[in-house]
Amino acid sequence: MKHTIAILVEDHPGVMARVAGLFTRRGFNIESIAVGPSEKTGISRMTIITSGDEKVLEQVTKQLNKLIDVIRVRDISPGNIIERELILVRVHTDSLPIRAEIIQLVEIFKAKVVYVERNTVTIELSGDEEKVSGFIKLLEPFGIIETVRTGRIAIARTKANGNA
Amino acid sequence: MIAEIMKRGEIMELSGTEIIVESLKQEEVKVIFGIIGAAIMPLYDTFGKMKKLPFKNILTRHEQGAIHAADGYARATGEVGVCIATSGPGATNLVTGLANAYLDSVPLVAFTGQVPTDMVGNDALQEVDITGITLPITKNNYIARRVEDLASIIKEAFYIARSGRPGPVLIDLPKDIQQARCQFKYPDKVNREGYKPSYKGHVRQIKAAAKKIMEAKKPVIIAGGGIINANASEELQKVALKTNIPVVNTFMGLGSFPKNHPLSLGMLGMYGQYVANQTISSADLIIALGTRFDDRITGNLKQFCPHAELIHIDIDPAEIGKNIAVNIPIVGDLKYTLHQLNDYLTEKKNSSWLAEIKKIREKIIPQLEEKKGELKPKYIIKCINEFFKGEAIIVTDVGQHQMWAANYGQFMHPRTFVSSGGLGTMGFGLPAAIGAKFGCPKKPVVCISGDGSFQMNIQELATAIYNRLPIIVVLMNNGYLGMVRQLQELFCERRYVSTSLAGSPDFIKIVEGYGGVGFRVDKKEEFYPILEKAFQMNQFVLIDCQIPQEENTFPMVQPGSSINQMMGVDQS
Fold first, then answer.
1. Under CATH, what is the fold of the domain B2-183?
2. CB B96, CB B423: distance < 8 Å
C-alpha cells in the first residue's frame, strides 16, 4: 500500500541523509521525496511517497521520530489530502499540425507552454498523480525528449485534519 | 584562570579547545580516554597549558580501547563516558565502540578531530566523513562548523546522551574551529522541539496494567537493561516482592534483581536458564520492563510465550510492538512508571504458580560435580561468587566465558555486570574493566575473558598496568574461539575451521612484559587460593585458567527453535 508521509525537520546538515538512511535500513522504498522550507524559519517539510505494509511503516515512523532533527512525522495518506506534483516536459514538434495538437492538449490539461523552439516545445504542468501521468501518456506518441518531475507534495484539506 | 574570570562575571573570549575543557568541567566529567593525533592536537595542547586539568586524561593504546573504557566507565557509574580520537583512522577506530554503546544504550560523548573546515571534502590526509559513517550508530552526531556553536553542541550532546534512552553522541571538531575564538557562555538548558522524552507513564494504561497483574494466575516479570539505565532496581524489587511475581533477567538486565532472591529465575534466552525459559513459556502474563525482545531472548518469535498477554514498559516507543505484539504498551521512564504502578498494586501470594515453578526447578538434575583436579568454568565462577559475594564489578569479554559468567555469576546489584550485549564485541572486556575501575576505584573489578577475546585489545595491558589499576583478569583459556567451536561441534560435525587459537602467546610472559603479574592455574584446587592472593596483591593480576578445550555452554537453544526447547538439559 502507498503512503504519503509528511515530516517536519530542523534544517540541519545531514538531515536528508538521516531520514533517507532510515528508510534504506528498514527496507522501505522511497518512491519520491520532496523537501522545502516550511512556514517557520529553520524548519523544513519533507513529503515522502513510499509503499510497504503497516507494521513496517509504523516502525519507520517511530524510528524517524527518534531522530533528534525530526520534529513530527505523520502518515497523511488515509486522510483527506491535496496532492500536487510539478513537471517540466520537452516534446518533439516536427510539424505545425503536431505543434497545434500538442498545444490543444496543453489547454485541455490547463498546462502551460514555457519555451518554444523550431522543433520542440517545453511544457509545465502541475496536478495530482493521475493528471500528471495521464498527460505524459498522451504526450508519449509525439516523442518526449526529457521529463523532469519534482516528486509529490501534499497538504491536509482542512485544518481539522491536522497539519503535518 | 578561566574560573576566576567567570566568577568576576566578565565576558571572556576563549578558544574552541578552552570551550571544550570548560564545558567538560560544567558537565562534571571526571575522566577522559583517548589518543592524540595531528587534528586533535590543539585540544591536547590546551590540556598541557592548564595548571590543573579538571579531569583525568588517560592515554589508551588504541582508540577502540578508549571508547570501550569510556563505555565501561559509563556502565559502572551511570555517568556519561567521554573519549577522544583524532581524525581519519582515529575516528574510524571508534566505530565499533559507538555501535557497541548504541546497541546497549550506553551514554557516551565521543570527540573526534577533523581536518580544517576549508579542507573538509577534499580527501585531505586523515580525513573521513565520520559523521556520515556513524549516522546509523549514534543517537545523534554533530560537526562543529562555527566556534560560536561549540558550547551549545556540547551541552546538547551530553543531554541527549544521558536522557531518554541513553546512547552515544559524536562531535566532530575541525582543527580551525578548535583554534578559533569566541565569547563563552555555557547554556543552562537544551530545547529541541524534536527531542522530548516522556518520563511519566499514561495513568490509564498503568491502571490497566495493575488490573491485569492482579488478575493474572501465572505472571512473570522480564527485567531488562532499561531497569539499570533508569536506576529502577529498588522500584522493581518493591513491585515483585509485593505481588510475589517471579523475575527473569535479560542479559542486559543482570544485576537489576538480586540473583539469590527466591523470586529470581536467572537469565532467559538462547543461553539462558532452563527454569527461566520454561516459566516464560507457560506464563499467562508477561510484564516486560526495559527490554527490546532481541532474537536471543525470544528464540522463534512465533512460539514465544504462546499463552501470555504482554505488558511492555519502555522509554523508547519504537521498541514497543517492534518484535512482539503488546496488549498494554506504556511509554515512560521505569523509575517513574514502576513507582506509579506500585501504588495500584496490592499484596498477592501467587502460591500455586510459585509451586509450579519450583517443580520445574526440581526437574533439573544438578550437574555432576567436576572430577577432582579438573578446572571447570562453572567452578571458577563459583569461586568468584564466593570470594566477592556479589560486591565486585564483573566485566566480561564475549564468548563462552561470557555466558558462563552471566549464568552462574551471583549478581546482586545493578551496574556490577558490565558486558557487551547487543553487538557482542570481542575485545570489550579489558578496556571496559579499565573504565569501570576508573569509575569505581573502591570496588574490586574482575575481568572475565577468553584467550580469543583477550587478544583483541591486549595492548590495553599497558593502560591498565601503567595506571596501576588493580584489576584481576580471569582468563578462561581453552585454546579455541570456543563459542564458535561449540557451534561447529554441534552443527558442523566438528569441523573446527579457523577456531583453533594455536599460536597464542604465553599470557603470563605477556603480562610480565608490561610489568604486571600473572599466574597459571590448571588444577581445580589451585584457583581459589590464587584468586585470594591476586586480590591481596592489590595490583594488576592475570590468572591464566587452563580449562578443558571442548567444554560447552549448556543448556542452549538451537537458533530458530522455541526457547523452551533447550538442548543439554539433564532432566528426570
1. Rossmann fold (3.40.50)
2. yes
Per-residue CA distances from A124 to A19, A139, B232 (Å):
30, 13, 61
pLDDT band at A56 (very low <50, low <70, confident <90, very high): confident
Give which of B243, B439, B454, B462 is closest to B354, Cα–Cα.
B243
CATH topology of domain B377-556: Rossmann fold (3.40.50)
Pairing mode of beta strands B247-249, B264-267: parallel
Q: Is A78 on the interface with B (CB under 8 A)?
A: no
Q: Provide the grid cell at A51.
A: 509503499
Q: Tell me, what's the pLDDT at B572?
A: 43
Tell me the shortest Cα–Cα distance from B191 to chain A, in angstroms. 11
Residue among B140, B165, B171 with most chain A CBs within 10 A, to mutate = B140
Put simply, whether A71 touches B (Cβ < 8 Å) is: yes
Q: Please state the domain extents for chain B.
A: 2-183, 203-363, 377-556
Mutation for testing the B interface, residue in A53, A56, A62, A74 having most B CBs under 10 Å: A62
pLDDT reading at A125 higher than 70: yes
Place of cell 502518515: A75
Would you say the CATH fold of A82-153 matches that of A2-78? yes
Please check whether residue A62 touches B, CB under 8 A.
Answer: yes
Edge-first strand listing for the sheet containing A29-37: A29-37, A43-51, A2-10, A70-75
Using an 8 Å CB-CB cutoff, list chain A residues near B153. Answer: none
Sorted by where each begins, the domain ranges of chain A are 2-78, 82-153
Rounded to an integer, the average pLDDT of A90-108 is 94
ipTM: 0.87
Q: Do A66 and B131 touch (CB under 8 A)?
A: no
Residue B116's pLDDT band (boundaries 50, 70, 90)?
very high
Contact with chain A for residue B322, Cβ under 8 A: yes
pLDDT of residue A98: 93
| Residue B160 near chain A (CB below 8 Å) | yes
In chain A, which residues have their Cβ closer than 8 Å to the Cβ of B141?
14
CATH topology of domain B203-363: Rossmann fold (3.40.50)
Among the residues of B126-224, which ranges form H helices? 130-133, 150-162, 175-179, 203-215
Q: Does B197 touch chain A (CB under 8 A)?
A: no
Yes or no: domain A82-153 corresponds to CATH 3.30.70.1150: yes
Q: How far apart are CA B216 and CA A67, in angstroms?
A: 37
Prior bond of B377 cis (ω within 30°): no
| Cβ <8 Å between A69 and B194 | yes
> What is the rounded average pLDDT for all residues in chain B?
94
Task: Specify the pTM.
Answer: 0.94
Mean pLDDT of B195-208: 94
Among the residue ranges A75-79, B82-86, B494-498, B515-519, the one predicted with the least confidence is: A75-79
CATH number of A2-78: 3.30.70.260
CATH topology match: B2-183 vs B377-556: yes
